[in-house]
Design goal:
Layout: H1 2-5, H2 14-41, H3 44-48, H4 55-89, H5 91-115, H6 120-151, H7 156-170, H8 177-194, H9 198-218, H10 234-265
Length: 267
C-alpha cells in the first residue's frame, strides 16, 4: 500500500486504500497459504483444520476475547506510561521512542484512513475489509499453514508461541507488538484445542469488529492510536489489568475443563 500511494496516506483515495489492503491480504497472505498447504501437504483439510466447531466451544472462546480485549488495552496504557517516563530520564530511550513514534504514526494514519466512513455502505465495506478479510486470510496463513507446520516438528506450545511471534511482527505495530503476540497466542491456543481453523477466524473477526464498532460509536482516535502517550491513572490501570487477567485465567481454566470432559465422552 505504501508503494502504491506513498507514505502520505492522508492523500490516498479512501476506497483505493481499502481495495489495496484487501487485495494484498488475498494475494500475499491467503493465496500463498492455500498454495503452500496444497503443495507441501496435499490434504488441505488436515493442515488447515477445516472442521466445523461446536457452538459451545465458540461461545467459550468468544467470552475469552471479550475479557482479553480490555486486558490488553490496560496493558498498553501501562506499557506506554512507563515508556514515557523512561524517555524523560534516558536520552537513548527517548531517541528510540521518537523513531517508534514516527513508524507508529504511519500505521495509525492508515488505520484511521481505513475506518473513515460517510455512508452506511462505507461502514459495511470497512467491516468487510478490516474484519472479515483479515480474519480469513491471516488465520489460514498463521494458525492454518504456519502453526500446523510447526506442530508437525515441535511441541504444540512452541508451535503456538513461534507462530504468535510471527503474527505480532507481521502487523508492524511497534507499541502493539506484545498485545498482538498475546492475541496470537490465544488464537493459536483456540486453533489447537478446537482443531478447527474457524474458531480463531471467529475470534479474529470479533476482535477487529469490536474495535471498528467502538470507533464508529465513540469516534475516538485513541482506539486505534497505540503510541506511547496520554495521561492515565496508573493505579486504576494496574487494578483493571490484574482483575481482567484473573478473569481471563478463569476462562482458560473452564476451556480446559470443557475439552477434558469432551475428550472423555469420546473415549
Amino acid at each position: 500500500t505504501f508503494v502504491i500511494f506513498g507514505f502520505n496516506i492522508n492523500d490516498a483515495p479512501i476506497n483505493g486504500l481499502r481495495i489495496m489492503t484487501m487485495v494484498s491480504q488475498l494475494l500475499f497472505i491467503l493465496l500463498p497459504a492455500l498454495i503452500f498447504s496444497k503443495w507441501f501437504y496435499n490434504d488441505l483439510n488436515k493442515i488447515l483444520k477445516l472442521k466445523a466447531p461446536d457452538y459451545k466451544e465458540v461461545l467459550l472462546f468468544i467470552i475469552g476475547i471479550f475479557i482479553l480485549t480490555p486486558l490488553l488495552q490496560n496493558y498498553v496504557s501501562i506499557q506506554n506510561h512507563f515508556i514515557d517516563k523512561m524517555a524523560e530520564i534516558f536520552p537513548f530511550v527517548n531517541s528510540i521512542k521518537s523513531l517508534l513514534d514516527s513508524l507508529n504514526k504511519l500505521v495509525d494514519q492508515s488505520y484511521l484512513k481505513l475506518l473513515s466512513t460517510k455512508t452506511f455502505f462505507d461502514a459495511i465495506f470497512v467491516i468487510f475489509v478490516v474484519s472479515i478479510v483479515p480474519a480469513v486470510s491471516e488465520e489460514i496463513m498463521f494458525r492454518g499453514f504456519i502453526q500446523s507446520s510447526f506442530e508437525l516438528k515441535l511441541r504444540a506450545r512452541w508451535a503456538i508461541v513461534i507462530t504468535a511471534v510471527f503474527f505480532g511482527l507481521y502487523h508492524f505495530n511497534p507499541y502493539g507488538l506484545v498485545p498482538l503476540i498475546i492475541l496470537g497466542l490465544y488464537f493459536g491456543f483456540a486453533a489447537y484445542m478446537s482443531r478447527s481453523i474457524f474458531v480463531p477466524m471467529i475470534l479474529h473477526f470479533t476482535n477487529n469488529f469490536i474495535a471498528i464498532i467502538m470507533y464508529f460509536i465513540i469516534g475516538d482516535k485513541d482506539l486505534v492510536d497505540s503510541s506511547a502517550s496520554g495521561v492515565l491513572d496508573i493505579r486504576i490501570s494496574f487494578f483493571l489489568l490484574i482483575l481482567f487477567t484473573v478473569i481471563f485465567i478463569g476462562i482458560v481454566y473452564f476451556i480446559f475443563l470443557y475439552y477434558n470432559k469432551k475428550n472423555k465422552e469420546f473415549v
